[in-house]
């Protein structure tokens, strides 16, 4: 590393201003479209040292060719950063993040990122714009699909797992990518759920909820950070000195690279804080943005800003130093190609990754309702009607960030059920389009369904309806799908509803009338096999919702960790916090998710109930599998501080863990939280630990009434010396 440091200093000394700015410029090769790009001649730019990194280049031969131009034909022979959005798989697609979070399995989150990194590195990519760590409590916002859901602890664990997965133990090793924690910060709080809209939240919310996942990513060693497109109370994130420079760099000690979002630096002009490109460039550089992604602001604006005296060459040098250090950390100076030696689509890799994708997909499915119980399906069932616009929607299975995943390799629910239920007759009718206005096909679907023993009704969104720039004001079933559901449910046959979507949907009427409901998100290439595994009972579902599902869009923002009100809802008292027309509770809560077996939780106990500031709350519970099948259950530990100097959320997740139990088996589960992690922000936003009683609530979802509880006492006096 010392050797790299010297080399970087020597390089800096010999670089022209144009070459320095080149290292700070990321150009779009345009092979995938992820923003309003303009075509560029990247080969010429790379040869002339005007681009130090590229994005959206996907063909391995092309990547290697341009990397060769960089290291052989450019004057300084500097390797390129090659970036791509690899959020949940590169060629093999795993479940979309919001779906995969439902597995509540950090090791799985790590392994799928590792597998994706291996495939991408084999193609010559060395940087991913992931993980996306934006907590979202507003399902109108389409980008909720890309992230970890509503909870802070889950988002922090997701951040750590994904950074470890993408970067591995050694970021320089073959098969490792540089990860990007994005989009700093509070992008998920965009006004009214409209993408790119202004963000104006309290400092408290910022520090309690939106910042911690980024801090966790930095502590896990994330190499790159990307600021959000949005502003924060009037200061656009691409120019936000307080967050980027003072908090992230100075206070948190982040010394990696900050890359702007796509075209975000010139957008400072539209935000109304810069009069021209040079002013925008100066603001971004001053805040600490090292790389300008496709904005052209550094290339065209920085030379002017330097002349005007609004930028300093020392800041340019510092940014170049950070970019070159990242290239050195990645090992690119020694070997610009980070392939692990196996081609991306090598059959051995393909097979391992497909089996991981199937496991990840079935672990991501959440069983929300199961009456009779209809699921798992009776193996003797003869005729199944598979109805709905998503039954054969191959491309949609890959979700809004499909990377290089080939739709033709995706397994749909139709494929999966045909393969799993060879003895049954499956009649399939798409009936209508996902978003179409035409009702024509509904009649034929009803006629077909009327002849079946069981109906599998597959509804939801297509892949274009979530992700970037895909906010929705009505988050119910799009197009004519509600009409289709009503017509099918009127048959009064057994109905399993399978919901595929990038966000929670408002589906109360459907849920009331269907016998079974599965939330399937977008599950990736193995979607159909995973769904068939769950429907046939080959896999016992264990997914849990990482985000609340509202009854109505009017409940948004909706999340479990709400603070108390002085007038909690009381049906006997009019002047209490309620809606006149619907209950306060969501349709499904954070943590909801059923199994084909039943788990009983008993015997909650704490190792100690009087604790000092350096202690840890350690609790045990017995979990017994009382049903007929093997299964897995996730147990959550929440806390509540009933009396504090600042009102605390009614429930706050502090630990979770999973246990696998055979039918009839019983096990002990241990959960823990360090007393120092009970600190909250006081009235001046300083972290404090306060003495007093803390409720510890343990159970299978954020349903307060069903949690087991005990109380511990926190004492701030110095602990008595142990004998
Ligand atoms: C998105 C980022 C993404 C970038 C590059 C932007 O539009 O906001 O999440 O990484 O494009 O594709």
Describe this structure in words.
This protein is of the alpha/beta class and about 725 residues long. The chain contains 20 helices and 26 strands. The strands form seven sheets. A six-stranded mixed β-sheet has the order 11-16-15-14-12-13, sandwiched between helices. Strands 4-3-2-1-10 form a five-stranded parallel β-sheet. The protein has a five-stranded mixed β-sheet with strand order 18-26-25-20-21. Helix 6 runs parallel beside helix 7, helix 6 packs antiparallel against helix 15 and helix 12 packs across helix 13. The longest helix is centred in the first third of the chain and has 17 residues. The mean pLDDT is about 95. The chain binds beta-D-glucopyranose. Beta-D-glucopyranose binds next to loops.
Key terms:
binds beta-D-glucopyranose; six-stranded mixed β-sheet; globular; 723 residues; five-stranded parallel β-sheet; alpha/beta; 20 helices
CA distance, first residue to last residue? 47 Å
**Beta-sheet strand percentage?**
15-25%
Number of strands: 26
Shape: globular
- Unreliable stretches: none
Structural classification? alpha/beta
State the strand order across the main sheet: 11-16-15-14-12-13
The biggest sheet amounts to: 6 strands, mixed
Helices, by number, come to 20
Rg: 26 Å
- Global mean pLDDT: 97
Bound molecules: beta-D-glucopyranose
Oligomeric state of shown chains: single chain
Helical amount: 25-40%
């Amino acid at each position: 590393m010392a050797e790299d440091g010297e080399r970087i200093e020597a390089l800096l000394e010999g670089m022209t201003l144009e070459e320095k700015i080149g290292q700070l410029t990321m150009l779009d090769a345009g092979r995938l479209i992820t923003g309003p790009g303009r075509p560029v001649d990247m080969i010429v730019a790379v040869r002339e040292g005007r681009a130090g990194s590229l994005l959206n280049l996907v063909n391995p031969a092309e990547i290697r060719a341009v990397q060769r131009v960089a290291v052989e034909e450019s004057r300084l022979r500097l390797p390129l950063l090659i970036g791509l959005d690899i959020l949940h798989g590169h060629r093999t697609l795993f479940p979309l993040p919001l779906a995969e979070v439902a597995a509540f399995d950090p090791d799985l989150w790590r392994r799928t990122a590792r597998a994706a990194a291996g495939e991408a590195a084999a193609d010559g990519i060395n940087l991913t714009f992931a993980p996306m760590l934006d907590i979202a409590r507003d399902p109108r916002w389409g980008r909720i699909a890309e992230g970890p859901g509503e909870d802070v602890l889950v988002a922090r664990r997701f951040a750590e797992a994904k950074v470890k997965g993408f970067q591995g133990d050694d970021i320089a090793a073959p098969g490792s990518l540089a990860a990007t924690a994005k989009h700093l910060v509070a992008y998920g709080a965009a006004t009214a759920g409209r993408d790119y809209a202004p963000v104006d939240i309290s400092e408290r919310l910022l520090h309690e909820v939106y910042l911690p996942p980024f801090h966790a990513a930095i502590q896990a060693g994330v190499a790159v950070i990307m600021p959000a497109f949005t502003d924060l109370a009037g200061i656009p994130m691409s120019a936000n000195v307080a967050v980027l420079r003072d908090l992230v760099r100075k206070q948190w000690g982040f010394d990696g690279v900050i890359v702007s979002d796509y075209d975000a630096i010139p957008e400072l002009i539209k935000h109304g804080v810069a009069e021209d490109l040079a002013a925008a460039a100066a603001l971004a550089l001053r805040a600490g943005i090292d790389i300008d992604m496709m904005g052209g602001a550094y290339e065209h604006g920085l030379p002017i800003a330097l002349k005007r005296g609004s930028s300093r060459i020392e800041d340019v040098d510092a940014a170049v130093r950070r970019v070159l250090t990242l290239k050195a950390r990645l090992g690119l100076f020694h070997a610009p190609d980070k392939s692990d030696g196996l081609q991306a689509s090598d059959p051995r890799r393909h097979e391992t990754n497909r089996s991981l994708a199937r496991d990840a997909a079935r672990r991501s499915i959440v069983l929300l309702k199961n009456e009779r119980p209809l699921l798992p399906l009776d193996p003797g069932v003869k005729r199944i009607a598979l109805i709905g616009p998503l039954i054969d929607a191959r491309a949609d299975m890959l979700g809004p960030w499909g990377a290089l995943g080939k739709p033709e390799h995706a397994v749909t629910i139709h494929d999966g059920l045909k393969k799993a239920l060879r003895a049954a007759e499956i009649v399939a009718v798409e009936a209508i389009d996902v978003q179409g206005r035409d009702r024509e096909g509904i009649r034929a679907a009803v006629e077909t369904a009327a002849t079946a023993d069981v109906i599998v009704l597959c509804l939801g969104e297509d892949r274009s309806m979530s992700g970037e720039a895909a906010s929705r004001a009505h988050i119910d079933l799009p197009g004519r799908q509600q009409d289709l559901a009503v017509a099918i449910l009127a048959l009064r046959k057994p109905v399993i509803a399978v919901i595929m979507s990038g966000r929670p949907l408002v589906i109360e009427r459907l849920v009331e009338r269907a016998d079974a409901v599965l939330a399937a998100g977008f599950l990736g290439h193995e979607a159909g096999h995973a769904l068939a595994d769950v429907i046939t009972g080959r896999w016992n579902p264990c997914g849990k919702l990482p985000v609340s599902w509202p009854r109505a869009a009017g409940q948004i923002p909706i999340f479990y960790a709400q603070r108390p009100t002085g007038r909690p809802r009381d049906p006997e008292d009019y002047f209490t916090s309620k809606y006149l027309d619907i209950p306060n509770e969501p349709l499904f809560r954070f943590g909801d998710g059923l199994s084909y077996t039943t788990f009983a939780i008993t015997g909650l106990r704490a190792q100690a109930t009087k604790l000092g500031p350096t202690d840890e709350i350690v609790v045990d519970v017995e979990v017994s599998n009382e049903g007929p099948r093997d299964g897995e259950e996730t147990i959550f530990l929440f806390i509540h501080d009933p009396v504090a100097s600042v009102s605390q959320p009614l429930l706050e997740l502090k630990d979770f863990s999973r246990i696998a139990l055979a039918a009839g088996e019983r096990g002990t589960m241990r959960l823990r939280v360090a007393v120092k992690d009970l600190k909250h922000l006081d009235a001046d936003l300083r972290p404090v630990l306060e003495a007093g009683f803390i409720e510890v609530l343990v159970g299978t979802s954020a349903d307060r009434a069903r949690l087991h509880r005990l109380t511990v006492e926190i004492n701030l006096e110095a602990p008595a010396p142990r004998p």
